[in-house]
Amino acid sequence: MISILENAFIKVEVSAQGAELQSIFNKQSQLEYLWQGDPAVWPRKAPVLFPIVGKVKDNRYTYAGKEYNLPQHGFARDQEFKLVSSTTSSVVYRLQQSETSLKNFPFEFQLDIIYTINQSNVTVEYKIHNPSAAADLYFSIGAHPGFRCPLTDDETFEDYYLEFEKAEKLNRILLDGGLRGDAREEVTLTGNKLPLSVDLFGPKDAIVVSGLKSERISLKSTKSAHGLHFNYKNYPWFGIWSKPGPFVCLEPWMGVADDIHSTQQLTEKESIQLLKPKAHTSFSYSIELF
Scanning 25, 42, 88, 287, which has its CA 20 to 30 A from the CA of 103? Predict the structure, then answer.
């Protein structure tokens, strides 16, 4: 099932499968902004990462003395969400624990994903609730939207750059089999700008950084006026990823992959989030087209 949000500026489509964005169409420029999921390159478009971000070591973790298995980025992106409410400007999808999920994620949870549009802006909110009266909920959550890059046929990937709101020093954590390794590498910025190139990614995979001061990263072109502002706040981790597609993913994370020295204890996992019984929390980001 596809839900459609639409106003005079944009048209947005969201699928119940994974509560995943399917399209962000700029009606003013007649341009699609969301990567359209080429199966030969990367079949997804904007998956939610829950209840983990990245990998747990050997795809296994331990909680309360028992061992469990979880695939990279968790299971929410492959689940059918329930439609809670829908208007022309907002839609709410919900996922809760099931007999299947409890086998490898032994927690009760309620995850609501809310999409709202306002003029040329799309806001995505994650609301997580712990419905248990007695047990804690440990989780991570993150966004993984992919954006078309270039946006027009007469441009190339290398015509685009990321502009950070504030001066940053990007110390990239190099990945080792999908886990955080010991090596670090500084990513060179030109002022506050990161020129995009295929060589930034390739065998090195994603650019994974922590502690960004910026709360906005803009995707811009040197050859056209088309682009977007990506707004986020209070996320400890950020990922930037691409494959020759062409697309670029901007990924704020409340959590991160295990490192190669992980104890595999869930309660000791880097940046793991904890919700006490009956508690709730929320995280959001927004996309502003121009």
Answer: 42
Name the nearest CA neighbour of 245 among 178, 156, 162, 159. 156
CA distance 80 to 95: 8
Any idea what the CATH number is for the domain that residue 145 is in? 2.70.98.10
- Tens digits of residue pLDDT in 96-152: 999 999 999 999 999 999 999 999 999 999 999 999 999 999 999 999 999 999 999
pLDDT digits (tens, 9 = 90+) for 204-237: 999 999 999 999 999 999 999 999 999 999 999 9
Q: How many domains does the chain have?
A: 1
Whole domain around residue 104: which residue ranges?
2-289
Q: Output the six-digit token pair for 144.
A: 């993984």
Residue with tokens 């901007």: 250
pTM of the model as a whole: 0.97
Backbone φ and ψ of 70, nearest 5°: -140, 140
Q: Which residue is listed with tokens 């990513």?
A: 187
- Kindly state the tokens that stand for 106: 């032994």
Q: CA 84 to CA 65: how far, in whole Å?
A: 36
